[in-house]
Amino acid sequence: MKQNPVVNNSPELQDSIYETKRRLAQRPFPDFISLRQHVSVSFEFFPPTSIELENKLWSCVAQLAPLRPRFVSVTYGAGGSTRQRTHATVEKILAETLLIPAAHVTCVGAPRDEVDEVVRRYWDSGVRHLVALRGDSAYPARPFISHPQGYQTAAQLVAGIRKIADFEVTVAAYPEIHPDAESQEADLDNLKRKLDAGANRAITQYFFNADDFLRFLDRVRAAGISAPIIPGILPVTNFARVVKFSEKCGATIPVWMRDLFAGLDDAPDIRQLIAATVAIEQCRLLLEQGINEFHFYTLNRAELTQAICHALGLREHPEHSLCELNAPGE
Ligand SMILES: Cc1cc2nc3c(=O)[nH]c(=O)nc-3n(C[C@H](O)[C@H](O)[C@H](O)COP(=O)(O)OP(=O)(O)OC[C@H]3O[C@@H](n4cnc5c(N)ncnc54)[C@H](O)[C@@H]3O)c2cc1C
User: Fold this and answer.
1) Which pTM value belongs to this model?
2) Overall number of domains in the chain
3) Is 84 within the bounds of a domain?
4) Which long-range contacts (CB under 8 A, 24 or more apart) does 318-321 make?
């Protein structure tokens, strides 16, 4: 005779089923189609120093443009060393693409008049978005010293820009605290000063633990700051270099990440696959918490950023391709 299976209705089993369902509900499986409508991205490039690097930059720009970023930003070399090249790159983006450029401007090594002149020149050439930064000393490991007649902080620079014209202004924020900051509270006060001076949003320094960003965002909101705070995502191409740079800028390299990249120093292709996995997982963790805007430090390399964006559901818009972008010197 067939026996009825024993039905276990114990409270423990019910609790465990409830717990499993709750976990699944918290971490739904990816729905790429619906993500596609929500994610928005921006890309950071640096100005090239040679014809070869210039070719590399423009092919990177051309490859990423069809993803329709909200804007693309161009950095200002440490110590203010790339003023002309930053300007030329931004103007070329403006003149030859459909992209919206944002020019980085720093306070380093120049009196206010000179910085104001740079800002005015950008406005006159049609640039409407600036990333306002203090910058660092041109000499590694030396503290930042402002020009005697210069802007001393990014907050002062934002106020100066606002007096000149109605730019959209982005500033920097630090989930793991800026190395010069006296305390977490002082760093948050500084971010508030920059936004109160007229900045529209902040982009963060890169970080690798999604939790560091989320906790920072909680602190920012608790401090009454409502401006958008966009996570800066660094797809890691050269792990050894990132470790070195992170020591200076205060970003933590988690143990799990060291483990993932261990033994891959001479295996760039595998490193690239690991790097994509790390960044995709980082973005997905943030997406699950409602973060849907990302800024990518591209380092003028398209593939990784393109792969990550693809995994986030972004698709190319061919009408935004830049086939007609002129080669350097044209
Ligand atoms: C998204 C992003 C883009 C960047 N792009 C560039 C770039 O293109 N070129 C470049 O050279 N660098 C760039 N940097 C690096 C940046 O210049 C450095 O991190 C620099 O050390 C600080 O710049 P800041 O604008 O955050 O400075 P600030 O906001 O002025 O703050 C710097 C530090 O000083 C402290 N501070 C500020 N005001 C006061 C005050 N009144 N009293 C006490 N403490 C104060 C702050 O708490 C903070 O610790 C970028 C950083 C980020 C996150």
Assistant:
1) 0.89
2) 1
3) yes
4) 318/66, 320/65, 320/66, 320/67, 320/68, 320/98, 321/62, 321/65, 321/66
